[in-house]
Design goal:
Blueprint lengths: L3 E4 L6 H10 L8 E6 L18 H17 L7 E6 L2 H8 L4 H4 L6 E8 L3 E5 L6 E8 L4 E7 L16 E7 L6 E5 L4 E4 L9 E8 L4 H10 L1
Antiparallel strand pairs: 1-9, 2-3, 3-4, 4-11, 5-10, 6-9, 6-11, 7-8, 7-10
Length: about 220
């Protein structure tokens, strides 16, 4: 349970799926873009490679780590990722599918929709300002999410961006459409797609927690 936990929450109803598909096509203007992760973008909400570099020496090390990751995934393209806030009515409908024990947590989650496309991988990283996410795929491209353990000391904190030579993939999750999985995204993780699926979409409904541990959410689930 350190990295992920599959749950039995029944989240994706035909109504919810239909509304999401409509938002992604004819009603896209009703979505609010909250964040994006793009390799090359000057957008203020582009969060790829967020880091806290305090010196030129640290910048050199960071750039070395980043180049190692690019070399590791040579010939592949980074995934484009966008995060949306849903219309209020749909947000409430989705939130109310959660068990009461989750909805009534001292710090309940908030709902987002995440869309991945146009790429092969999301590099190893840990998320900023989030600790735990409950995900439910609406569509997938058979992605694998891998969690990485640090095997050797780093010159910079490994969670900002790891030295790919000093970490090891130790756990893998492959959620199918409609399944709900609890992810510890405070740990280093990556997303990879099978060959030939670059242009496909992965759309997930996500419940996100801040300042909340994986164990806190699991306990609330067990109360259900």
């Amino acid at each position: 349970m350190k990295y992920f936990l599959q749950t039995d929450i029944d989240l994706l109803t035909p109504s919810i799926e239909q509304q999401i598909n409509q938002l992604l096509t004819i009603d896209h203007d009703k979505l609010i873009l909250n964040g994006e992760y793009l390799e090359k973008s000057d957008s203020k909400i582009n969060n790829r490679y967020l880091e806290s570099i305090e010196s030129s020496e640290e910048q050199v090390i960071f750039d070395q780590y980043r180049q190692k990751i690019l070399d590791y995934y040579a010939g592949q393209k980074p995934i484009e990722l966008r995060v949306y806030q849903l219309p209020d009515d749909l947000d409430r409908e989705i939130f109310n599918r959660l068990p009461e024990s989750i909805r009534n947590m001292p710090k309940p989650p908030y709902v987002r929709m995440q869309v991945m496309t146009n790429g092969d991988y999301l590099a190893p990283h840990s998320d900023v300002n989030r600790d735990v996410t409950l995900i439910c795929p609406v569509t997938t491209a058979d992605e694998s999410t891998c969690w990485w353990a640090v095997r050797e000391p780093h010159k910079l904190p490994a969670k900002s961006i790891p030295d790919i030579d000093k970490v090891e993939c130790v756990a893998i999750a492959r959620p199918a459409k409609g399944e709900t999985w609890l992810y510890n995204i405070n740990e280093i993780h990556s997303v990879e797609r099978p060959a030939g699926r670059r242009d496909d979409y992965r759309v997930t409904i996500q419940f996100r927690w801040t300042n909340t541990s994986m164990l806190d959410v699991a306990r609330a689930l067990w109360l259900n």
